[in-house]
Amino acid sequence: MSTTGEKGSATTKTPADFLKSIRGRPVVVKLNSGVDYRGILACLDGYMNIAMEQTEEYVNGQLKNKYGDAFIRGNN
């Protein structure tokens, strides 16, 4: 089994590894209410609480607000 990351090769990557790899990158967080938050993933904890930077709030696909930093509770 190869872990070089080549396409078509089998790699072992856990969800935690994936979440660590996207820290500092643009993400879209979709809440159960239908609201989307788009921004840079700053950090994430074991309860799935999310801290984001340069965050934009979208309701029904339309930009509603811009926030410097945002914190989203994991139970949303």
From TrEMBL:
A Gene Ontology molecular function term of the record: RNA binding
Keywords: Cytoplasm, mRNA processing, mRNA splicing, Nucleus, Ribonucleoprotein, RNA-binding, rRNA processing, Spliceosome, tRNA processing
Gene3D superfamilies, A to Z: 2.30.30.100
One Pfam entry name: LSM
GO BP: maturation of SSU-rRNA; mRNA splicing, via spliceosome; tRNA processing
Sm domain span: 14-76
InterPro entries tied to this protein: Lsm6/sSmF, LSM_dom_sf, Sm, Sm_dom_euk/arc
Entry annotated with the keyword tRNA processing: yes
PROSITE patterns with a match to the protein in the record: SM (PS52002)
One cellular component (GO) term of this entry: Lsm2-8 complex
Cellular location(s): Cytoplasm; Nucleus
Keyword Transmembrane appears in the UniProt entry: no
Function: Component of LSM protein complexes, which are involved in RNA processing. Component of the cytoplasmic LSM1-LSM7 complex which is involved in mRNA degradation by promoting decapping and leading to accurate 5'-3' mRNA decay. The cytoplasmic LSM1-LSM7 complex regulates developmental gene expression by the decapping of specific development-related transcripts. Component of the nuclear LSM2-LSM8 complex which is involved splicing nuclear mRNAs.
Similarity comment: Belongs to the snRNP Sm proteins family. SmF/LSm6 subfamily.
Protein name: Sm domain-containing protein
